[in-house]
Model the fold of this input.
Amino acid sequence: MPTSFHQSVIDEFRANEGKVGGPFEGGDLLLLTTTGARSGASRTTPLGYVRHGESLLVVGSNLGGPRHPGWYYNLLAHPLVRVEVGAAGFEALAVPAEGERREELFAHVVREAPGYGDYQAGTSRPLPVVVLEQAEPEEWVGRPREVRTLADKLVEVHTWLRGQLRQVRAEVEAHFAAPGAAGAPPSLGLQIRQRCLAFCQVLEFHHDSEDGHLFPGTARHHPRLAPVFDRLAEEHRTVARVQGELAALLAGVSVAEPGRFRRELAAMSAELNAHLDHEEEVLLPLLADVPWPPVAPSAGPPTAR
Done:
């Protein structure tokens, strides 16, 4: 949980559209909400940030202490985070920079906020520089989307999943196309790991929600389609097996066995796209008249005031 000081900063930030006093007054401050690596609970942390093009950079300085801050370990375990800047909030993909890119970005940070150089001088660990990137697939950026029905919502989630999977595969193929040491493919970096892990976690949540709520609720209204829902559930289990293989390869900070990862990713693409196509064919006609967001049941006629 946030300390009482951090909580007071969070409360002041949200009450004043990002403006706070005290030691943060006049500085660039954001709120980063991560998911606990062990607890699974939401954790919000006020952090200074530096802009770099369209991205925001945050540094795991921990005031120059010997260990990385807790929020850094959280975003390694759960790369999708929520960012609040001013009055705006958005979902982001958190990607720690590596190698030469980390050095380049840290130099940019120090030029904009020299205090981070002092923190680095006070510790032997390289301070992580985390890039907060657009979480949506590139084709979504700037595109208005209208979601009025549960069918629209299903298509929206499926579009996100397809887009993320395309981006991961494109990044993996680019890595394999670039020669590594002695002509070997380079090891897969944190950019690929973070994006693929985020994709796997959203996919798992989506399928759990369908298995626990959407499928049973829809099947009650369409009992004749019981075999169809049985087949969809079996497809979920098939996708989950491939997802489990990918998740095992993503367990460390570096992607294990890049060649095997590439093969499992190709299997995921084939299985998932076939499943999404089939699911849309079956479910969209059934969900086209179901409003989204759900309409709360009426509590009865209004009373006079």
